[in-house]
Every structure is written in C-alpha cells, then in structure tokens.
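Troubleshooting entry. Yesterday's outputs looked truncated, so today I'm pasting the complete records for two proteins to confirm everything comes through intact. If either block looks cut off, that's the bug. Protein one:
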Amino acid sequence: MEEKKPSAGTSALIYGLLLAVALIIVHLILYIADFHQSTGGFVVSMLVLAAGIVLASLDYRNKKLGGYISYGKAVKIGFLTVLFASFIVAAYTFVYHNNINSAEIQQAKIEAAQKIYEMDMDQAKEEQYLKWADYMNTPVVYAVGAIFMYSLIGIVMALITSIFIKNEEQISLG
C-alpha cells in the first residue's frame, strides 16, 4: 500500500488564514494607534509575516513530515501560506480603503497631484499624469498591489527562513 504524502496546500491554507487574520488585526491596531503608515508599523507587519511563514513551515515539518523537510518543500509551504494570506488581506484592503478609510486614498490623490504640479510640465502631459494617478489610487489597485507586495516579500522571506527550517533525512548507505 502506497503511503499518502500530506498536502502542503491544506496546511498552507490553514496557516494562510491564520496569518491573514493576524495581519489584519495588527493593521487595525496600528490604524487605531495612527501608526499604520509608519516605518515601525511596516516592520511589525513584516515580523508577523515572517512568524507566520516560520510557524507554518515548522508545523508542516514536525507534524506532517515527521521532523524532516527539504529546502524546496519549506520554501513551498512558506510561499503558499503567504499567497493564501495575501488574497484574504487583499479583500480586507479593498474593504478598508473603500469603506473604513477612503480618506487615505483621497489624500494620496492630492499628494500625487501636488507632485505632478511641481514637475512644471505642459498641461496635456499634466492631465495625463493626473488621470494615471487617479487610476493608481483606487481600492482595487491597492488590493491587487497587496497581493503582489505580500507575495514578493513572502517568497524572499520563505527563501531565507527555509535555510534554517530545512532538516533533510540522512540516508545511510551501510
């Protein structure tokens, strides 16, 4: 009888959900404390992201694979965890910028317009840049950006953390 390997996708989905909830709670706490746009708030979010990757990888290694995991599988579980979390965080980002704090997008549009006006270019080009700034500062673009940002940072973190998490089974030849 063939031994069935445990699914990385299921573990990543569960930990992705937990990671997304943690990231959302952290963001809400930072928002209430008015630190959500600070460097410190970003660092806290990245630490939570790294912790989620490590916990998912360690759980998969220790509970599903008997304490052994290759570097590639550790990267896979870490990245899948962040990928699943990023879709949930993207949905939250859309709701947040559409309903909770739509003023943040309006402020971003104002700041973009000020920078465009400071460039001192001809009016046709200015209008083109203003349209582009309006398009880029929408809840949908922010949500899609969250998926890409978390996925990119997540793969880098998974590549790094997997160096320390891997524990490959030694095969004896004698």
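Protein two, checking that the full record survives here as well:
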Amino acid sequence: MEAINRGEEVAALEALPHELVILHLIATGIVRYQEECVSAPGGLVIVDGSYPEPLQRGLDLFNVLRYRKGLPLIKSVVDLLSWCRRPLAEWSLDLDLGTLGWGLMSNERLLYGHLPSQLCIELACSSGEVEADLMERNFIERVLARCRLCQDPQAYVSFRRWLIEHPVVTEQELLSLSAGSPELELLRDLLREAYVDAPYEALYQDAFYCCPGCGALLLPDQRERRLLCMIERCSQLPLTPEALARLGTVSGNQPSGSAVRRLRPEERVRCLRRGLIWFVMWPGRAELRLERRLRGQGLQVELWPDYDRYDLRVVGPRGTLAVDVKDWSNPYLLARRVKQEGIPAALTGQFYYVFPQERKRLQPDYVRAFRAAYDALRGPSLAASGLKVAFEDDFLREAQTLC
C-alpha cells in the first residue's frame, strides 16, 4: 500500500511544473513539521535534529536550481525555514507568472510568523499527499457517515454551522451545548473531538484573546508587542496594548467586533483543529454570509445539500443554482484542484464557483487569472464545462436575474 501511495504521489508531482514541485515538497515538509510540533506533549517542540523527509528533498532540489543559476546555496533546513519567511519574488524561480497566477503572489510567503501560510497549505495539497491530514478528511467523513446512517442531514448542517461560528470555546461552553442543543446530540462526541487545547504560544499576559473580527485566537508576536489573528487572511489589524485597551475586553462569548474576548487558562480554553480552521471555519464564514444575503433577496437557500455535495443550493421562481465557495490564494492551484475533482454529477441548474469578496480586495485580477489557468490545463475549458465563476457581490447580482 505504501508503494502504491508513493507511486500516486510521484505521478501527481510529475504533472506539476518543476519549480512547483520544489515548493510543494518544502510546503509539505513545513506542514508536517508543524503538525508534529502541535502534537508533541504539551504542544512543545522536541528538538532531535530530524525534519520531515519532504523538507530535506525540497531543500536539495532548490539548491540544485540555485547552483545552476550561480546563486549561493542554502546551507541547512534551519536556514531554509528562515528563507520561507521571504516573499516568493526573492526566490528566483522560473514560474510562468501569467499562466500560473504568480503575478498575484509575488509578496506571498510560505511561513506566516511561525505558522504555515495559506499558500503553503495550498502547495502542500497540490498532490493530494497530505490533504487528508490537513483537511481532517477522515474526521469529516465520520461525521457524514453517522448522519447518513441516522438519515439526519440537518445534524450535519447544525454541526458544521457550530464549527464555523465557534472557533474558540471553553470546556463549559461545550458542556452547555451538549445539554442545550438536541439537534447535535447525535454528534456530541465528535464535536468534542473537533477541538484541542489552546496552545500555550497564544497566551498573552496570562490570558487567551480572540480576534474581534473572526473569533479565532490572537497570537502575540515574538516580542509580545502586538497581537495578530492566527488566520493570515483575516482583515483584523494587529492589536497593540493601546488598541486592546481602547476596544476593551469581555469574558465569555459576545458578538464579534464589539470587544476582544478574553479567556483565562483555568477555563480550559479549546480551539478548532488547524485543518478545520483552514478548510471549514474560514471558508464557512463566506458560505454563511452568502446564505444570509441570498435569503435577504427572497431566495430559498439550502446549506451543504445532499450531505455536502456542494456548499449552497439556491432556489428561486426562475431557476436553481449550485454554489461552491472557494478561497485559495493561488488561482492556478485552485484551478488545478477543481479540474481534477470535477463538478458533482446529476446537478440541476447552473453551477458556480464563488470567491469571497475579501479575495477581490486582496487580488482584484483573481477571476481572470483563474479562468486563464483553468483553460490552460488539460481538458474542457470553463465555457465548455458549463461552469461559471464570480466574486461574491457579482454572483449575488447574477442570482437575482437567474433565480
């Protein structure tokens, strides 16, 4: 089985441009190393001089490329990890900026502080080798399997909505949920499994703080002079002690944006597993926002229909739309992924890939770059596939016409 998996990995990597193979290996090594650090006892890093094998392979290939260009070699994995905090524009890689969408990515880095960046995670997923661990696919499949067995799709919707709206909870909040939410009774044990103890690295002045924008944990920088949201895509500006004092802090839960939530360690603070934050909680915020806005237009909306075949089914007097919300930083990597997966079978109505409005703010040319990347890959073009893509606001205008 290991030989088969290895063969699949090699085949997937061969389909990538050489420079992306290098970045994929480095990104895979970073993510695996981070997961090993997180899973160590007490969340502590045990330094034994060893690193995940893809990290070393990526370093070797990167040095071969640099040697051929007459550039100084990177001496060690430690130096490589420091290098990963540099913008990609400084890597001297021969990437087709137009076709692959890297023109939008010149300032991106593989490490966001000491955490893998969004681009790093996308690169690690580009062969599918580590995606199951990152997305906690086995965990989500177990949730779906139980809901199917009990013929209770609403339990899955309630479960997923809870994860999106509660990235950080206390032990008491989890207990209260179990007692007060009968629709989640079916998944009580799995709900607890979705959370881990908040890492000690998030402690700031003997407390945990939550982002007033998205609710995820805030992390102090190395000098503890400011707090940053652990999600790099979050638009929340770093909070200095002065800004924290102006906003004020509250204990317990509160609407995001009104104040900064402050939790004491003795409350047994829990946060979502990293894979669920990356692939469920953050894109789910856009999914729930779309649901609210579409309902505000008088349309019927079903979240994650048919046990999560896609994200939203939109029904109106004139037609039906199927929507998958996608928020990847690199349009080429996303185009490659969705082309491999294909659209769900036996759909009725138009199928849309919708990009959150925040992506337009960060990368205004994203839709054009995605279309170009999709059409440049093997297989039918977007138009021939019957697919449509749009930013969130543009989709809402089109939905009013089509539905």
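Both blocks look complete. Sanity check on protein two: The radius of gyration is 22 Å.
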